Request: fold
Amino acid sequence: MKRIAVLGSTGSIGRQTLQVIENRREEFKIVALTARENDALMLEQIRQHKPALAALLDKGSAKRLRDSLETDTGTAVLDGEDGIIKCVTESDCDMVVNGMVGMAGLIPTLKALETGKNIALANKETLVAGGQLVMDLAAKKGLSIIPIDSEHSAIFQCIGSTPVSQVKRLLLTASGGPFRGKTRTQLKSVTPSEALKHPNWRMGKKISIDSATLMNKGLEVIEARWLFSLDADRIEVVIHPQSIVHSMVEMVDGAVLAQLGNPDMRIPIQYALTYPERKPSGLPRYNPVLAGSLEFLSPDTENFPALKLAYQALEAGGTMAVVLNGANEVAVDLFLRGAISFNSIPAVVEWVMEKHNNHKNPCLEDIIYWDIWSRQQAAAMVERDGEKYWHLQ
Ligand SMILES: NC(=O)c1ccc[n+]([C@@H]2O[C@H](COP(=O)([O-])OP(=O)(O)OC[C@H]3O[C@@H](n4cnc5c(N)ncnc54)[C@H](OP(=O)(O)O)[C@@H]3O)[C@@H](O)[C@H]2O)c1
Reply:
């Protein structure tokens, strides 16, 4: 019986992880659940899985949860960042599924590794901000980081035990999001609700907006760099609107391996949980005849400059990716709240990156400092230049 802690259990990845586990109760036991503030859903999840520990970041929500929880579940409800960390370090789990969103997932990931836990990682911002620290610590402790992101899971499966020296390049596929084919002029007036309508996947708000700007693919390029130890010039992006080929790996002899399947996150989630074994999932099977033709196109980095910015951050190294990520988190939030236009998201990120004096080989304290700095800069720019500027993009 594998004992699992699920961080971000109330989100899209978290809920699908619990669905996978519900079908495999003889193999997995949930020992801890965490989220930010959704006490109502957490209450249902606790009743169903009876974990020893649960935590909500928001203390008021945690109090409400404690008040409504029956004693027979035996679950201790913690709160704050410390509470989330305790769910990782004190829950006696074998594996942590990190389905949190944003750079908030970095410290719990590091704490999990410090205390000897393998990680199934969906939270890409963790590797974007702290890739070197996380991968070094995992290697030092002899622990695994198994990707859940469908593209990285595909690459992980295609590479298998092939040494990195025999891999020529990675081809990360991207759907292109809801606005594929649009120009900057057409993108000027798109709304948050239009941007949230991803053609192939139902996901949380932040990743949906990142998919629409192509920043998601940029974050994934950086994630791939750390997971697979390949430089940026060996990681390419190809637009594939059907989201059937989840990514490809070209080997040095010219052979290209791809992993295909229906766009359903429960497949990579289950694989991360059962790895190295494969188990039946009971999910609808891929039918190549019904799925029809598969297209591949070059990404449009003129109208969607976020992807270019991510490559620049990766090539710069140091704290540049921390700053890219922090500014992007703020810009996405401002867009969702109607404070800035869609085209302003990459513009905010670019200006904060331009202001940043890069710092090489950052430690955790540097990462936290420059993450806060980038958020403050992004917020201050929008505050200062206001409507007049941001809506002109
Ligand atoms: N969704 C997908 O299909 C998918 C695919 C590949 C990769 N990913 C990656 O997986 C991660 C999660 O994505 P998602 O779509 O599942 O996001 P989501 O639906 O927004 O869920 C995020 C989860 O994290 C919790 N959370 C948010 N901020 C937190 C904080 N500061 N501290 C603690 N917990 C916090 C949320 O709690 P509340 O519900 O209480 O707010 C929720 O449980 C992201 O990094 C994303 O890029 C997602």
